[in-house]
Amino acid sequence: MKNRWRAIFIVTIAGLLLVIADAPSDAARRTAKGSSYDGTWSVAIYTLRGDCGSLRAALRIAGGRVYSGDGSYQAYGSVGAGGAIRVTLIRGSQSASGSGRLSFSSGAGRWRTSGGECFGTWSATRSAAYY
User: Fold this and answer.
1) Which of 17, 77, 99, 119 has the fewest CB atoms within 10 Å around its CB?
2) Which pTM value belongs to this model?
3) Which band of pLDDT confidence, cut at 50, 70 and 90, is reported for residue 109?
């Protein structure tokens, strides 16, 4: 009798795991239907403290996920339904993380290097082709 209940329990757990694994995640559902922030964004990065300089970067958002706009760096992150954005940029051995908020056509926020030696602000505008 114990073995029978153990078998039923194992089959039930295995079935639940399959259902959970097969269910689309929030990120997958967002990717499938897109995000109101999808498109190419031009980001100006300003250093307020430290010797990191300022630069301009292109980011691409697709399905609420953030990607680099060119091969000179890697970008990882996501945008929430309300426009809250979190991004990590990596170039070589250097990395910086930023957060802020996007609206329909612009955005702004703050960033900091992983070691804390530099920090600053950023502003972004969406390319007109994606409106």
Assistant:
1) 17
2) 0.71
3) very high
